[in-house]
Design brief:
Radius of gyration: 21 Å
CATH superfamily of the largest domain: HUPs
CATH architecture of the largest domain: 3-Layer(aba) Sandwich
Mean pLDDT: 91
Number of strands: 15
Low-confidence stretches: none
Number of helices: 7
Shape: globular
Number of domains: 2
Largest sheet: 7 strands, parallel
CATH class of the largest domain: Alpha Beta
């Protein structure tokens, strides 16, 4: 019987919990600090001291997991700075391989079989193991509710404290948790024209993302908004790409989207091959028209 453990310092692990329920007989959330969440079988809380970074709890976390985890069990962590650090610590301590881009998982009799997406979605591969495994993936939406929690001591944590915090420039955006996303591509001729994409996103109640050239090429948008192989992977209910050509480095990041709408004046653009709805035309006419209709 497979156990799943979610390691987190945030309640935004709804997608991880949904995934765990597809294969695990029990689900335990191990929280770093005072995180309120529900919908799991058990919550184990490791308290944080004042000024202590969550990463400092890695030795305490791994000691607890070593006493609980068996071959065939699965550890899940959100793709956040703390999640990645703690996933790596657990991987080393338990001699458990660590994976990203997991498409599906089956577990039986201490054997775990994973299907992985490779090369930006161009290929799949299968791996079979009889050890624990660690998976890093987008956490998804907040796991709502509260559960009674067992608290364990944080003795043995690293002696580290936070001396200063600096907030990054720009808005705090979480594209991976968004239900609707509007994406601006290189079809926008000037930075000022992105106001049209902002307006459409606002009318839809959506987040605004971009392709790599707009963030890492000409720096019109923050790197946190870049969607693609080396950027953010998203799985919204609705994706609208305006002026997006659809090269593989971008489309690999939207494979989980439920409905894809593409706007491009090039009828041969690769994006149309995966689009559910294709609008061939000038984005400078179509995007404002869509915003106007949505506002009615």
């Amino acid at each position: 019987m497979t156990q799943a453990f979610i390691i987190t310092d945030t309640p935004k692990v709804g997608a991880l919990a949904d995934f765990a329920r597809t294969f695990a007989s029990s689900l335990t959330a191990v929280t770093l600090g005072n995180v309120e969440l529900g919908g799991v079988d058990k919550v184990v809380r490791i308290p944080l001291a004042e000024g202590q970074p969550a990463e400092a709890l890695a030795p305490v976390l791994t000691q607890y997991l070593a006493s609980q985890v068996s071959p065939g069990d699965v550890l899940l962590a959100p793709d956040t700075p703390v999640g990645r650090v703690c996933a790596a610590a657990a991987s080393v301590a338990l001699s458990a391989p660590i994976f990203t881009s997991v498409q599906s998982l089956e577990s039986a009799e201490e054997t775990t079989r994973l299907r992985l997406s490779r090369y930006g979605g161009l290929a799949d591969s299968e791996v079979e193991l009889n050890t624990p495994v660690v998976i890093i993936a987008d956490g998804g939406a907040e796991l709502a509710g509260t559960s009674d929690a067992e608290e364990i001591t944080n003795a043995g944590a690293y002696a580290a404290t936070i001396s200063a915090e600096t907030a990054p420039d720009g808005d705090n955006v979480e594209l991976s948790a968004a239900e609707r996303v509007v994406v601006a591509g290189r079809g926008f001729a000037e930075k000022e024209d992105l106001a049209m994409a902002h307006e459409l996103a606002s009318a839809l109640g959506a987040e605004l993302g971009c392709t790599r050239p707009l963030s890492e090429g000409i720096a019109w948008m923050e790197t946190e908004r870049y969607i693609g192989i080396s950027g953010v992977n998203i799985a919204p209910e609705l994706y609208i790409g305006a002026g997006v050509s659809g090269q593989i480095q971008h489309t690999a990041g939207i494979t989980g989207a439920k409905t894809i709408v593409a706007i491009n004046d090039d009828s041969t653009a690769p994006i149309f091959e995966i689009a559910d709805y294709a609008i061939v035309g000038d984005l400078y006419q179509i995007v404002p028209a869509l915003s106007a209709e949505l506002k009615k």
